[in-house]
Amino acid sequence: MLRFDLITLLELLNIHNAFGNGTLSTIRYLYNAGAKVFLISNWGRSGDPAVLSVEAVAGHLSSLLQLKVVAAKTVPCYMEIKSEKFHKADILLFENLTLFREELANCPAFSEKLASGASIFVNDAFFLSHKILASTVGVTRFCYARLAGFHFEDQLLQLKQIRERTMQPYLAIIGGGKFLEKAAALLRLASICDGLIFVGMLAFQVMHVSGISVPSCFLEHDAFGEAADLIELVNSRKIPIYFPTDLLCVNDNNSELFEIFSSERLLPGWTPIDLGPMALKEINNFLSVCKKVLWIGPVKFASSVNGAVGASDLGRMLEIICKNGCDLTVVGNAACQTVLAAKISVSQCKMFENASVVWDFLKGKTLPGVAALDRAYPYEIDWATIYENPTQPLVVDIGSGNGLFPLKMAKKWKDLNFLGLEINNKLVMHCHDVMLNCNRKNVHFISTNATCTFRSIVSTYPGELFLVSIQCPNPDFNREGHRWRMVQRALVEAIIDLLAVDAKVFLQSDIEAVTIRMKEQFIKYGKGRIVKDEDEEDKVWLPENPFGVRSDWEQHVVDRGDFMYRMMLRKVGNP
């Protein structure tokens, strides 16, 4: 199943084929790999008679792809997919998701229906990744693998580059309004950029905090504290913060009457609508020395009025610095349209028409559409700085809790490296504190959802994977079909793929059904590559912990006199 953004796809194709081709390449790749592809998307507004039919969209996609796309006037349903009408179709486009209220509500039943018949989910709708939708988040719990498409991954990489200070000076041009809503993002920009230029309503908030008299109607009175925090950070970093020195204003009583005013002497009866000539000249001076520029938000002080040309002038300035090798990122529909009108080649800059995704990213928010994918692990791991000898065999404890098991194991076996993967960040921070106190160089902990990230983390390790332990997972989360179930097909396949031959998997729980279900998942998805260890083939359960090291919960269970259901599995070389 491929979730794509039809509106963005068509817009990008109109701008430049190379951009739109990201999603088209994803579809062709899946098709050429032999997959049956279900396409889902949204377009237009519900009830709008001008909205294209699913048949018309399928025809358009067929023309773009040079492949037959069959329209299905329904959402995916396993029985309908198996029907004779659709059985032979390789690419199916399903009904417009705009028509279904369950999509916006992330309805579980609707999500399950969407995912019916699909085993792998691919998300290529990056500009929707800040939303929680049934088609981008809900469906992921019903597909065993959840991946990013080519367009999605390319946009995510470009987004991350906004936070990088690889080229300096790095300047941010910030337009638009709603200071309070964007305060966290503005602080982030102030911490990474070498200067901030405000070209919209946000400028008045900065001017007010800087001691300049500003008409009350232009201010957010509940954002004074946040604006003061921004000024304090800028001053502590000793970087410039700029607001327009003059503004083009329109008379409130005569929309054909314009006047240039100093930003410090705005008169009643006049409304700012654009940057003044002195402000544009000063901005040009700033830009002329920049190596990297982010423009986010429109040059807008009030409703668009004839005579406003500041954005166009800014676009021409950016065209010049782009030709001189400046790294330019443009965010927001208005800014992108201005850049395109200035004839700046899309190969010379990065463009994000949906500003909401970028603002949420800069605020430090988790993007739900990104977090729902398997390949969401965001860090490069330098194993040489983590372990004294990164070539030693690796033992991974999934769901390491307070770290007692990996820490004691690391003390006992110094010729092995130990890695604890734990979803609770507070427990991981505790483990790091313990590591510092004991000064061990063969144990480490990472805060992550190992079910999704095991492969991307462990596959980069330079040594061999010697042992994986899964001990006492939460029984409430390990019921069949539960969204947060730890032992799922994707995790099992990743573990078996990465294990060395004859390496082992240790499973245990104080609840018999949990251990049995974990074993069944490994046997089912191991496809003959994982078997019960030959040393215990005649035993139902291991009577004792084979390592002589107990986790905290195992110790608790033993102390109360209850039984632990343990077993050891082994990877075989030739099924």
From TrEMBL:
GO cellular component: cytosol
GO biological-process terms attached to the record: gluconeogenesis; glycolytic process
Gene3D superfamilies: Phosphoglycerate kinase, N-terminal domain, Vaccinia Virus protein VP39
Coiled coil: none
Enzyme class: transferase
Record-listed E.C. numbers: 2.7.2.3
Known cofactor(s): Mg(2+)
Entries under Pfam families matching the protein: Methyltransf_4 (PF02390), PGK (PF00162)
Reactions that this protein is recorded to catalyse: (2R)-3-phosphoglycerate + ATP = (2R)-3-phospho-glyceroyl phosphate + ADP; guanosine(46) in tRNA + S-adenosyl-L-methionine = N(7)-methylguanosine(46) in tRNA + S-adenosyl-L-homocysteine
Key words of the record: ATP-binding, Kinase, Magnesium, Methyltransferase, Nucleotide-binding, S-adenosyl-L-methionine, Transferase, tRNA processing
Keyword Magnesium: yes
GO terms of molecular function: ADP binding; ATP binding; phosphoglycerate kinase activity; tRNA (guanine(46)-N7)-methyltransferase activity
PANTHER family the record matches: PHOSPHOGLYCERATE KINASE
Annotated family: Belongs to the phosphoglycerate kinase family.
Subunit-level organization: Monomer.
Protein name: Phosphoglycerate kinase
Annotated source species: Dendrobium chrysotoxum
